[in-house]
Structure formats: C-alpha cells, structure tokens
Amino acid sequence: MPQYVFKMKKGELEIEFTSDDADFVEQQLEKWREEILKKQSY
Amino acid sequence: MYYNIKIKTKDAELVLESSNSSIVQREMDVYFSCLFDVSCDFKSRIKKVEIKDNNLFSIEGINNNKELEETPKEKETEKEVFSYVDKITESEIPTIEDFSSKINLEPQIESPIEPKIEPINEPMESQFELQIEPEVESQTEAQINALDELFDSRVEESEIPFISIQPQTQEESQVESVITELEPIDNSNLELSIEQEPLKDAKEINLDFKLFLAGFMISDLSNEFLACAYYIKNILKQDGFSMKTINSYLFQAARKIADMSTVSDLVERGFILHDESQEINKYAITASGEEYFKNKYQV
User: Domain coordinates of chain B in residue numbers?
Assistant: First the structure.
C-alpha cells in the first residue's frame, strides 16, 4: 500500500505527516491549503 | 491505517504514530495552527503530548539540542510550502539528482569525417640519371638511360651484354631498310665527304655513324667501340667522349652498349685513353688505336 508523505516547513519548524490513508491525507491537505489562503488574504 | 507525525525544530524532534485518524486529526490541527501562529507555544504543546490511548504515543519525545540529521531528501528550501509525494517507500523519493540524470544532453556532433585523399602515386622516375649529350637524339633518351644503368653496374663478366630492341619508330625502320640496301661505302672518301658537310643535328649524326659503321661490317663490340671512338675524333672532331656518348652511338647503330670490361680491354691494349682528370669526356682514341683501326679496316 503506498504511503503518502506530507511535509510542511517554515523557518526552523518542520512538520512531516505520513500516512497510507489517502482520504485522510487529502482532507488534511485541503484543510491546510484553506488555512494558508486565509492567512494570505489577511 | 497508519499515521505518522514527525515534528522537527532547530533543537527538538518529535515523532508520533497512530492508527486512529481522529486523534491524528486533532494533533495535526494543533500543529498546523502553531505553524502559522507565532503566539502559539509550540514547544509547550509538544511537551504535553502523552500516550492518550494505545494508538497514540510519543516515540522520541522532546530531544533538547539534538542534531537533526538531514537526509538528502529532506533538504528543502524555505520557499517550499507543500510537498506532496505519492510514493511506495521513502527510499524511492525522487530527488533533483534523479531528475538530472534523465535530462537528455545534446548529442555531440561529431566532426565530419574529412575524406582522405591519398596522393596518387606518381610514376616512379626513371631509375637512371638523365644526362644527355647535345648530339644525342632525344627519342633515344630513355633507351640511353637504360643502357647507362647497365654501364654503371660495372659488369665484369667476360660476355659482352647485347641488347636487341625492335625499331620503335617508323623512321628508324626506314633507316634500317635503307642501310640494308646500300652498297658498301667507299671508306676512303667517306671521311673527306663528311668533313665538307656542315654541322648536323644529333639525328643526322647518329644516322651518319650508323652508315659509317655499316661500311666496315664489324660484328664484335670491341671493334665497334673502337670505330665509334675513331668516328668521334676524326669525324665529329671531338677530343674525348664519355661512356654515355659512345654508348648512345653504339646503341643507335648496332643496338649494343659497351661496359667497362670492353673499355678496360681497349685501354690495356693502348687503343683507348682513359684520362681521369677529365670530369666528363674521360676517354679518347689513341694514336695506336687509330692506326690499328685504319690498318684493320682499310680506312
């Protein structure tokens, strides 16, 4: 089963999320993408 | 399902694993907010992570001042926000180096092969030197040179080399036919008649010697050589001659050439003079030779 790796990095902080749950990973990505867009709009 | 969260800071690292998506969801929300909210006490949040159920536990916890080992695949610039990779194993994460190997380089254009033009082998020059006396006929140059080569070899054999060559020109064949039809020339008047005639070219001279020689009916080369020496001195009025000169006459007249053995014999007999002080015309008939020739052939 494939693994999905999602990594976010900001300065010295790095968060890496790994999962084989494709749906879960997709949800997290969507959520984080919306949050980023909100921050940019502010 | 498998869920793994890895958090790295400058001096800390935390790895969380769980099979419960809801728990992981909650943790991810916290960490994500910390990522964008500077007021969030991220480190304090990490310290509070505990084993809440069997599916979430802190693997390594907070490691203060731990040097994070960055693998080549984890080296990313700060501009990178998302990295979503669909992979089977972590070891197969493609890197920049992997992509660079797939770049097709421009084919090297080989230099056009220049056709090699081999020089055409020029016909070999005659192996013989080309030193022709002015009075020698030009048509016989190659023949004379061939004969000269034989002369230079200094054949010491007793046998006299004899070369028989068919007439190459129609003119020569005509001359030969004329000679055969001629009656024996009155040698007593020949010398006088030739002296009265004006200077002739080489062709005519050769023809004259041919006629001169034909009048004596000489068959051996030694006497033919002596006859030619006599002709050169008394008819052509030349004090000396070279081997090339005399051989040119002999070849034209009798299709023969004389080698050093013939000359040496005549020199020993005192009929021919060999003057080494001369560079070219080293030979000349002696008075004894002239006397011998006159007496023998009733000149």
Answer: 3-98, 138-297
Burial class (CB in 10 A: 0-12, 13-18, 19+), B11: middle
From first to last of its 299 residues, chain B has per-residue pLDDT tens of 888 888 777 777 777 778 888 878 877 777 777 666 654 555 555 554 444 444 444 444 444 433 334 444 444 433 333 333 333 344 444 455 554 454 444 444 444 555 555 555 544 444 434 343 444 444 455 555 555 555 554 444 444 444 444 444 555 555 554 444 444 545 444 444 444 445 556 666 666 888 888 888 888 899 999 999 999 998 889 888 999 989 988 888 888 889 889 999 999 999 999 988 887 888 999 999 999 999 988 87
- Domain range annotation of chain A: 4-41
Q: Does B24 touch chain A (CB under 8 A)?
A: yes
* Cβ separation B36–A18 shorter than 8 A: no
Across the interface, whether the CB atoms of B32 and A8 are under 8 A apart is answered yes
Distance from CA of B6 to the nearest CA of A (A): 5
Considering only CB atoms, which chain A residues are within 8 Å of B36? 10, 35-36, 39
CA nearest to B23 within chain A: A24
Angle between helix axes B202-214 and B170-181 (nearest 10 degrees) is 30
Which 3 state secondary structure label does DSSP give A29? Answer: helix
CA A6 to chain centroid: 5
Whether B80 and A39 lie within 8 Å, measured CB to CB: no
With a cut of 0.90, is the ipTM above it?
no
Mutate to test the interface with B, among A18, A33, A35 (most CBs of B within 10 A): A18
Distances (CA, A) of B134 to B188, B206, B244, B245, B285: 28, 12, 11, 9, 20
CB A16 within 8 A of CB B5: yes
pTM for the model? 0.33
Q: Can you tell me which residue has the tokens 């007496």?
A: B295
Whether residues A8 and B7 touch (CB distance < 8 A) is answered with no
